[in-house]
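Anyone up for a design puzzle?
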């Protein structure tokens, strides 16, 4: 059974049913499979006997990404069997900071050896999550945020900012949609300017800076963050080093270590090191998000 499936893929499940004495149950049984998707929807795929106490079923075209849970039950003479498990469905188009072929080359694994591909794919996904947290999203993604009013400047949570789609402020029962009005081209009192590099929006009134109306979470900003898929080479190398670090810690007993123990946080009697070693953070430093960002 694969470790990861893709949305739209059929998932084949199998189970060896045991009787009350612990041997494969080969008599007449009632066997059922219950599957629960990540949203809580339950289905009962058809179960087929495969001989020798083995039963199989197929979950067709899994459409929801996330953790799917399943439960086998079997009843019959001398049989009261139950077993539970889960499988992971990965969404299509998920952000990957590096590809599988590059990872295998970095680890000096033969391209023809596919025995560890599923595990490596898990490391790639984990590295993408950590990279996104440190340097921000790489692929474009849309965010909706609510900010407090009362000051002229709002700082967005996710950098880099690619574009601001809308800024709306709420005052009592009134709603005001602001428009981007760069300095020198202001037209009315309901404008804003945006600094994409710093992720800051400044409230403008005919060119001058004014405060957003006072309130708690009364300013709504919809924007796109990300680098458009342009992954800096140092970010990519940092991800490869992170995957190597995690792979060696979990698959090779922490050996061999490159760069010295202190670089991996392994000094002072911490032999296993940190999940995110210092050299990876140094590689990501030029693109690191500012501190205090949610």
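Challenge accepted. My sequence:
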């Amino acid at each position: 059974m694969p470790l990861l499936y893709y949305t739209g893929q059929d998932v084949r499940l199998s189970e060896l049913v045991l009787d009350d004495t612990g041997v494969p149950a080969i008599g007449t049984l009632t066997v059922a499979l219950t599957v629960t998707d990540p949203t809580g929807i339950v289905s009962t795929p058809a179960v087929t006997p495969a001989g020798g106490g083995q039963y199989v079923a197929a979950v067709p075209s899994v459409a929801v990404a996330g953790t799917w849970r399943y439960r086998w039950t079997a009843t019959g003479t001398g049989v009261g069997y139950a077993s539970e498990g889960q499988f992971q469905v990965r969404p299509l188009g998920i952000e990957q900071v590096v590809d599988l072929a590059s990872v295998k080359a970095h680890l000096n694994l033969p391209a023809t050896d596919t025995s560890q591909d599923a595990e490596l794919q898990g490391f790639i996904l984990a590295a993408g999550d950590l990279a996104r947290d440190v340097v921000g999203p790489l692929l474009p993604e849309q965010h909706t945020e609510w900010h407090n009013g009362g000051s002229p400047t709002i700082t967005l949570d996710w950098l880099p900012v690619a574009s601001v789609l809308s800024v709306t402020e709420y005052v009592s029962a009134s709603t005001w949609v602001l428009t981007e009005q760069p300095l020198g081209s202001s037209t009315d009192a309901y404008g804003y300017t945006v600094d994409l590099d710093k992720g800051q929006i400044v409230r403008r009134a005919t060119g001058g800076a004014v405060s957003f109306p006072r309130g708690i979470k009364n300013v709504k900003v919809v924007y796109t963050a990300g680098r458009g898929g342009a992954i800096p080479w140092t970010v990519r190398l940092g991800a490869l080093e992170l995957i190597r670090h995690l792979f060696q810690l979990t698959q090779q007993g922490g050996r061999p270590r490159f760069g010295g123990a202190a670089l991996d946080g392994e000094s002072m009697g911490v032999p296993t090191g940190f999940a995110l070693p210092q050299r990876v953070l140094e590689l990501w430093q030029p693109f690191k998000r500012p501190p205090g960002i949610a």
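A detail worth pointing out: The two ends are 37 Å apart (CA to CA).
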